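Backbone geometry:

***
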Amino acid sequence: MKQVILGDVNLPYKFSLDRNKNKLFFCINADEFSDQSFHSVVLDLDTGFATVIPSIRNGFASAVNNDTSVVYLGGSDGIYKYNYSIDDIEKPALLREVDVFDMQFKNNLYFVDTANLDLYKLKNEKKVFVTSIEEYGIQHFTFNGDGELILSNSVGLYHMGKEDYEPVWFSNSVVNIRGLATDVMGVPHVIAQDGIYSVDHKNEAVIKILSLQDGYGLDFDKDNNIVYIFCVVSLAAAGRSPHADYVEELVRQNAFGARISDNILEDASLDVPDLVRKYNYPLEEHFIMTQDGYILGLHRIPHGRDSNNVPGNKPVVFVMHGLLGSSADWVLMGPGTALAYILAEEGFDVWLGNARGNYYSRRHLYLNPDAENDNSFWRFSLDEIGNLDLSASIDYILLATGRRGLHYVGMSQGTTVYFIMGSLRPDYSEKILSMHALAPVAYQTESRGPLMDALAPIAADAVSWATLLGFGEMFPKSELLAWAGQNLCRDEAVFQPICSSIFFLIGGWNIDQHNATMIPVMLAHTPAGAGLRQFAHFAQNVATKSFRRYDHGVLLNLAAYGTAVPPSYDLSKITNPVFLHYSEGDTRVALVDVDILYNELGGPKEKILVSQKTFSHIDFMWGTNARYYVFDRVISDIRIIENSNK
């Protein structure tokens, strides 16, 4: 029988249970006002009373010697013993200058060092190397009843016997592993995003024993009951596109006649994971949490289908969508045309990001995006997406893959938020091997969009009033757009040219690169939703002809920035190689603004003008010949940089 012991907790994970005292130790994400990322917590399972352990900094991992009830806590500054009598750690630390990622006790204290993801043990107050897994590192580990190691990373599960010199891989049947734990009978278990599994390495068997939605923490009490945490957040379930219900209703009404293909209808009704799997590509779903509690969806295509289709250590490419977009933008055009598939076939490990507030990242630990009269969820601008979403995504990807750097591809807003991150977090330049900006948007001194130009001067007042009235979200999934896409914009529909004209107004007129047949699929996945302040932030920069932080108003600016006017982003802090792909036919990005951006960047850089003069803004992601005009050059530059780093 399942019993809820504690609810509404800021995502507890990394469990360790003192089976004698029935006390559970775990970590939680710190709130946005804390100067730390994590806190250690102890929970009395008998009373349900939980206490934050105050003195350990960024307490992340814990371990219990269940023979003596000695508890060990690991943070960013060392390993400490926990003292029950004072409900706090004992000082000095048992070991300093180590940042602990995972811990277990088996005769000795064992731990994974975040710096290199190698496994060590604590012996005579010294750090003693135990083992490592080349390139991928060790993320989680436990001991079975025989004292043998079971380990995991992004590649799968490993076993290491007492006489073995290094871990041996034995299974990749479980993805998105969040932790390992051993029950009182000595049987190792895995908690993953989708459930809990028991492990029998001798028979290479991994068996699901419990299905979950977003599993995070796992351990066993003295009676061998499972103690676990799973995150339940109200959001549309995976498996269907944003407009699947509307598409199916239109099918029932025979709104499409016989002309539209089954493939188009199916692609319009599938979400990204099922859409990618439909075409027989591997797809992993990952969920990460930002330091302010937003839960972001990441989609990974780790290898190709027809070429480079053997799993292994591959260069990582992280792709980020534009305004109102999502990871779907990079797959919906299908194999051979969509960038994500092309990159996978060319031998890259492809990760597709999703900014907070879109269909795949419309979640938070405690804020409700659909709350009436409370738009707290939507109080973010481009600042937070760049500063918090991108940095969290990059850190997670590098940790999951064991790579020391990745290549970044952004389109439109996906470039804007990268420039923001590079300005506010210049240390991330060391993690980016190259940045490829498609239709780069930073300065907009000569915006040629009349609607944006007209609205820009009143953007601050408009967003202020809209916020007071409770508005926060812009262009979420829409029944009207779904109906238009499937009924009015299909092939042979009389209004399809009008549908095409709307796309041309957004990004520039270019019939040559436009595939009108795909409009129903495009409108089934896009727009995917965004926050009102994202639009306001863009509009503020258009109005001021600058590239600066979000303008909250004089008083709030003084509190946030120390100045009445928001400071400009310092692009000279971006020192990694940047390639700017732009075109004359892009009505959203003026050539002079590309020049301003280019001149302010602080590292190696190159401007690359698309040879087709009519190549438009949206052609950078959906152009029928985008591979020829843009993607092949991106791949070539990535390969050159990869070869230079060998």
In short: Confidence is low (pLDDT under 50) at residues 1-9, 231-239, 254-262. The chain has two domains: 13-230, 244-644. Residues 7 and 216 are 14 Å apart (CA to CA). The two ends are 55 Å apart (CA to CA).
